[in-house]
Design brief:
Layout (H helix, E strand, L loop, with lengths): L6 E9 L4 E7 L5 H15 L5 H6 L12 E7 L6 H17 L4 E7 L3 E7 L1 H6 L4 H11 L4 E5 L12 E4 L7 H5 L2 E4 L5 E3 H4 E7 L5 E4 L2 E10 L5 H16 L6 E8 L1 H30 L2 H24 L6 H14 L1 H17 L3 H27 L7 H36 L8 H4 L2 H37 L1 H20 L13 E8 L5 H18 L4 E11 L2 E13 L12 H12 L5 E6 L13 E7 L5 H17 L3 E6 L5 E8 L1 H6 L4 H12 L2 E8 L2 E9 L14 E3 L5 E3 L4 E8 L2 E5 L2 E10 L5 H13 L6 E5 L1 H10 L2 H20 L4 H6 L2 H14 L6 H30 L4 H31 L6 H36 L5 H6 L1
Parallel strand pairs: 5-22
Antiparallel strand pairs: 1-2, 1-26, 3-12, 3-13, 4-12, 5-10, 6-7, 8-9, 11-12, 11-15, 14-16, 14-17, 15-16, 18-27, 18-28, 19-27, 20-25, 21-22, 23-24, 26-27
Length: 986
Amino acid sequence: MFGLDHLEYASSSSYGNGAMEIDLTFAQGTNPDIAQMQVQNRLQVVQPQLPQEVVSQGISVLKEQKSFMMVIAFYAKDHSMTDADIADYVASNVQDPLSRVNGVGGHELFGSEYAMRIWLDPDKLYNYSLNISDIENALRQQNIQLPAGELGGLPANKDAKINATIIGPRRLVDVDQFKKILIKVNEDNSRVTLGDVAKIELGPQSFDMSSSQNNYPASGLALKLAPGANQLETENAVLDKLHELEAYFPPGLEYSFPLDTKPYITHSIEEVIETLVIAIILVVAVMLLFLQNLRATIIPTLAVPIVLLGTFGILAALGYTLNTLTMLALVLAVGLLVDDAIVVVENVERVMSEEHLSPKEATRKSMEEISGALFGIVMVLTAVFLPMAFFAGSVGIIYRQFSITIVAAMWLSLGVALVLTPAMCATILKPHGTHEPAIEGRGLFGKISLFFENFGDRFNHLFEHLTAKYIAGVQKVLEHWKISFSIFLALAASAVFLFIHLPPGFLPEEDQAKIFGMIQLRSNGTQAQMKEVTHDITEWALKTYPHDVDSVFTMNGFSFAGQGQNNGAFFVNLASWDKRPHQSQSAQEIAKAIMMHFWMDPRARIFAFSPPPVSELGNATGFDLELINEGNLTREEFLARRDDILMRAARDPLLTAVRPNGMEDAAQYVLEVDRGKANAMGISNEEINDTISGALGSIYVNQFLRNNRVKQVYIQAEPSARMNERDLKRWYVRNQTGEMVPLNAFTWGHWVTGPQKLENYNGLPSFEINGEPAAGVSSGEAMNEMVKLIKATPGGGLGYAWTELSYEQVSAGGSTLPLYALASIIIFLCLAGLYESWTIPAAVLLVLPLGVLGAVILTMSRDYANDIYFQIGVLTTVALSVKNAILIVEFAYEYYNLGASLAEAAMKAAQQRLRPILMTSIAFLCGVIPLAIATGAGAGARRAIGTCVVGGMFTATIFAVYFVPLFFVEVLRFFKVKPVKEKEEC
């Protein structure tokens, strides 16, 4: 399969029962139909080399996500149905309709439909001198659908009077009919029927899996999402179909959803919408605080719905949906999209106040002053966010949502600020010094107006005092420029140092109100033992967390590591987020409690963990590692070195729950056959094979009809006849002379230890290892620690590769610095073109470390990592830092060109721009603070990006208002930049 277009990696698993799976992972954006066609073409090439048994059974090529989209549990609280009854009903009546729902890519049933089970008694077979092949042949001959033909069928004589179909022997339909199948007629004409030598009953086609829901009998159906399908739309379609089928359910059959991502997605979107509303309210409150004028406040407020609606339209036109990421981007954009309108309104108010112009004239003059700055700010924001849209992979998908949303909102905001806001300022604002007696004369409105007027006077007095202190501080910074620059360099160095040492990560862990669990018994554990363990886990979880745990769905014989009697899994469904307000009630803490309680359980190893933040990228949080045999080690050597790594990882304080995600080697009984001796006894190879298959395994014979559905017929030895190797003595084979020869006359066996599952990664033997970082440790640190453990393994010969979520994290790790560098270069070029100068952009870009410093400090203080959301937050901080710097530098450069000295120009610009800078910065901070303190669904992502932006914006604002004037003065002085008029005279 190697060489397929866009193939990233391939893994395969081979099981002891003869099954094999090959998982091919393609790059994001690959056309799944083309990929499937290429895989099928490759299979056609190698198919002649495969065993005939494999070819005859068929090879399925499915395009589906690796993880489950949803799991539906069907259960009977009144015990009116057994788990086998439920599984048969689901397989017969529910599975197919749901699998045909548009968007469903694959499905897996935790159980099986009914089959006709024929349990053979070896003692009775011996007494009647029967081989297993006799039973098989009788079934094939007597359970048959025979097309007998027609009466009067063509060609027919001319005098034919009738044409009718002849109904011949038909397939059997019930147990009684199977019991009457004739096996043998004795010499005395007595008959031996199937009921004489076997127990016949309806039973599961496969006993490999069983399920329970809160310890009630159950079966489960897992659905996978098709590539490119919309998850919410698909889940809604599944729910609609399920409601339709529910009307025909047997009495007592209920269903629930142990795994369902829809509530998490919808709740997280609702939480973001709530945050968006809070952000808008806070932004409006800040504008009212600074502008102290309802008319002036209304103007930028109206920009919010206009820009939001326009952004929704652009997203729809580009094929994007309203999801958690786009809504989160809009929360960030709320503080930004009113900035342009705020700058316009504030400057118009300032011009009217200082120059006593009418609103119309003040608006005209104000737009002449700030249009360039507004355009420059939007160009810078575009330069920062637009490159994110061109990143590939899963990281690019996340970046793209933010990039398109914010860039669209910014350009719409600029359009509103340049077109609508000036028109509204000229018509709505009132000249300073005028009053509105109609309002002042009213009771309640008059009191409100008086309150704002008094409050405004006090606020303005306080702000003027603050401005005076600020200008004095700027003057000292300029006077002691060497010390000031030294302080700046120290801050910049601190930002770089802390940024480098910020632990790497990929996505923050989320509480999705779900817990996954894996159970591993000893290698030869039985399903009965597994049922005891899953029963205890369910009972403990429900009793310990009666208000937090809604349900526990367990699966015996299935886990994400493999299938077998010693494997099990469980899904814990938690109460909604508002019912679990405390940290101890979080999914992570409850999962930890489950592991701690069962950690010393001698029966099994039990792991509990949260689902990954992105369900398509694995089944658990933490890291996914493939340990690869690159040194041609024997399996024993490879296994010993893996166990050594696991042992050291268990003692490592940076790691927790490090485990093999596979099946351990188990005891196996090797049955040897002396075929030469058997042939000498007159026993054919076919009889030997049938006897061994029927005695120790099962033989599929043919089909029968039940409830108008075709089901299968199986022959197998009764359980008591295959408990251990000694039971082989009970089996006999009839030779050509009619003598019954014991099986152990020509067979013998011995015990060995062998693999239940063989894994390969990119064509090399491998072991999959999963694990999680310890508390307070990032995923990147945990991954680095695992690499150290592998490299320190004595003997070498080991390689490694990251898969699933970890693969995406490593792939994205090298893209951060190029992204920052590209954004900085584009900002520089945009500003150079705007100001027609190479030096002024340098004065603006020097502000960048100041925002990064705060972002890193606050992120570190909350034990967050340098993940995708932090990177988006840093870019947002960079954009806002540059925006504030532009507001000062733009005016300072104008004053410098009008004849002021560098220091005078810088101080005058700082004084005039302090109010809009603080107003826009505080408005933005108020808009994102709800993100930093978010709770509920999706809070991890919101807190990560909110923390970064709040910290970065705080330091960028506090430090930039002092350092930007310094940068302007010293950079222009160092490069000896002359005023524009002086240049023209020269």
